[in-house]
Amino acid sequence: MSDQQDRIYSTTHQQVARFSFDETVVRVFPDMIRRSVPGYATIIDMIGVLAARYAQPDTCLYDLGCSLGAATTAMAALTEEQGNRLVAVDNSPAMIDQARTLLTEAGLSHRVELLEGDVASLAFDPCSMAVLNFTLQFIAPDARDALIQRLADATVPGGILVLSEKIRFADEAENALQTELHHAFKRNNGYSDLEISQKRTALENVLIPETLADHEARLRRAGYRHIHVWFRCFNFMSLLAVR
Ligand code: GEK
Q1: What is the CA(225)–ligand 1 centre distance, in A?
Q2: pLDDT per position as a tens digit, 171-181
Q3: pTM for the structure as a whole
Q4: Which CATH number fits domain 1-243: 3.40.50.150, 3.30.365.10, 3.40.920.10, 3.30.40.230?
């Protein structure tokens, strides 16, 4: 059900509606994210590697904004069956429905607690790993500090947050170049100029990127002791923040 090609913006929309994670998006989501986010498959694989390195027994591992559970699946593959509580959360009912089907098919339903809810108002149990893989960018900017603070407070010493985001650059010319390179990546993956431009309109004020400096400052304020950029390609990056 979620293996179709993304053609959502391939024809002219008279009025481009605000982007939402509904059934239409769920049906094409794996194709959409792979063709839109440079390095997505690598990032998912490395989240598994990071889980193997940082998961601590008797703590939670959170996948926040889990979509179809790709990061959850990578974490489950490389951590012990009994050692952790894997909790995957998304506020899109359509995503959660399809994630449940896929996790069941993968034989992982017994390992994963799947929750439909807003990560901005979730109460966190002690965790050694939390993943926000391209999710924080969709959360209202004024709710981001509090979410990161509550996550930091719930993270045990030596635990981590993996924060992947599309970023913007304070320097206009740098921002324009990285945006252009991202669009070239999308074009190379078969998206037309019309698709790229309508998707961009749909995401305006829905996906709100911040600078790397904004993210680093927030993580530091929250109490993360070490912050590493472990992946970057054009205007997409992933941070490893250690508590
Ligand atoms: C992956 N991490 O495949 N609470 C819970 N979920 C939310 C919220 C919120 N407040 N806001 C947005 N979402 C995934 C990819 S996609 C990124 C993450 C993208 C959810 C939203 O429903 C969607 O499923 C996900 O965050 C963002 O590794 O599509 O660019």
Answers
A1: 26
A2: 999 999 999 99
A3: 0.96
A4: 3.40.50.150
